[in-house]
Amino acid sequence: MRQGAVGAVRVIERDGVRLVEKRMPDAERHRTEVSALRALSLVDDLPTPQLVEDRPGEILMTAMPGTRLDEVDPEVRLAGLRASASLLRRLHEVPAPAGLAPRPDDAALIARYRAADAPPLPLAIPPAAGAVFCHGDWTDGNLLAHRGAISAVVDWEAAHVGDPLRELSRAAWGASRKDPRSSAALIDAYGAAAEDVHRWDAIHAAELWLWFAEAGPPEYLAQLTTELRGWGG
């Protein structure tokens, strides 16, 4: 069983078919993932699991082929991230299902960050670029690759209606912490203006710092704090 930040996931077999069982104690995240998967079942060109069964506290879905991009060779990972950008753009064209959470409250995030003992950052909310169907956690751990293509986008419990450039920036900034080439690979393949995307970077830095401050582990918080002190304010 793979233990995640918000639940637990394992592969099971039923009548000879491999399924993924996902258990989440957070009812809102559970409801969000079910809503997203139901909406995405109508989209043929986005590789996502098919919802098999929705039970209290537990979701059953089809097991998808492929290996997580955070478990592959750096060059394969980079190519996979680049390939995933067109899927992210496609997602942003899909009508969002009713009832998804609204865009993150960045004003509240900035206020929390400034009230904490955190490194100074140039925090400002960029102009909105729209409100679209967002995955919420487009990372190498949620992208599967098989035979040189992205075979699945998984973990939809953070789906929401949000700003497309904010989501792209979060993906690019987070990926670049492992490999600096990742940022340009994602942004260029998506087809966005790098300057517009990078306006969101400080927001994501603050968001991650608060996550580590509240949930740990302490060594990650210490490392990020050192990084952000070099950013300036």
3D structure, described in words:
The chain has two domains: 2-62, Phosphorylase Kinase, domain 1 (2-Layer Sandwich); 67-229, Aminoglycoside 3'-phosphotransferase, Chain: A, domain 2, CATH 3.90.1200.10. Helices cover 42% and strands 18% of the residues. The protein has eight helices and ten strands. The chain has a five-stranded antiparallel β-sheet with strand order 1-2-3-5-4, with helices on one face. The chain has a three-stranded antiparallel β-sheet with strand order 6-8-9, with helices on one face. It is globular. Residues 1-5 have low confidence and may be disordered.
Strands, helices and their partners?
Blueprint: E1 2-3, E2 8-14, E3 17-23, H1 27-40, E4 51-55, E5 58-62, E6 67-68, H2 74-91, H3 106-115, E7 132-134, E8 143-146, E9 149-153, E10 160-162, H4 164-176, H5 181-190, H6 194-198, H7 201-215, H8 218-229
Helix pairs in contact: 2-5, 3-7, 4-5, 7-8
End-to-end separation: 42 Å
**CATH topology annotation of the largest domain:** Aminoglycoside 3'-phosphotransferase, Chain: A, domain 2
Number of helices: 8
The H/E string reads EEEHEEEHHEEEEHHHHH
The overall average pLDDT, rounded, is: 93
Key terms for this structure?
233 residues; 3-stranded antiparallel beta sheet; disordered N terminus; globular; 5-stranded antiparallel beta sheet; alpha+beta; Aminoglycoside 3'-phosphotransferase, Chain: A, domain 2; 8 helices; 2 domains
Write a short abstract of this structure:
The chain has 233 residues and is an alpha+beta fold. The protein is built from 8 helices and 10 strands.
